Amino acid sequence: MPSNSSELDEIRRSFEAAQTAWPGVELEFSVFAARAEAAGPTHASDLYLACACSEGSPAALTEFDRRFGSWVRDAVARIDRSHDFLSEVQQILRERLLVGANAKIRDYRGGGALASWVRTAAVRTALNLRRRAKADPETGASSASSAPFEQLFDPEVALLRQRYMPEIDAALRQAIAALDPKERLLLHFYYVDGLTLAKIAAHERVGTSTVFRRLNSATQAVLSAMKDQLSTRLQLSTQSLDSLIRHVQDDIDLSLSQVLG
Known about the structure:
Elements: H1 5-21, H2 29-35, H3 44-54, H4 58-77, H5 83-98, H6 114-135, H7 147-151, H8 155-177, H9 181-192, H10 197-204, H11 208-234, H12 238-247, H13 249-260
Helix pairs in contact: 1-3, 3-4, 4-5, 4-6, 5-6, 6-13, 8-11, 8-13, 9-11, 9-13, 10-11
């Protein structure tokens, strides 16, 4: 908690304003102050709600679901619209963000909008879930609830994102722009519309193996072009660049869906 009186006064003003925003949610000032930045949080009302959720406040958890439930549903629907998939993502997300002493909501500091923070976590969870279900169809989607989600909040990965994602995003946009229009449309079907290989095959009137081959070819073309650009821009070795790509793969998938969308 900040010891400087002026800093503490600023945080108290933020706290009191947040109390007004959430009249039915109770929270001790000391809990809020311990998480707030010295100059006061940019999103004080969001931080107030996050702190109350961390404390297990039933009213706060109810408000969290009411406020962000639609954000999660809309974000996940862009990846997979099925009810079962949405339910699985919601279960994993709630467990990781809100349940237990290690709930990730405890890491939120109010520096950015909580809605964006939750939406990003939902999209990455959904992408992990779909990727793992495709990689391991026998065990199904439940395997996505393990370690990869933890990487979303890993400090080392967060540093890589902060340092390199602008360059990665720029390289990705250039790589996509260089694709054939048919290849871009195929990636749009898969990453934005969330269509399965079978649905794309039916739309294109070809076999699923053909769709898989074309989709893989388009994806590899983007990845190869992106790596070529990053190798020049970042002056990284091939090994270091491959490691970077692995660490921020979820961000690349998310950026891919945003650029194509």
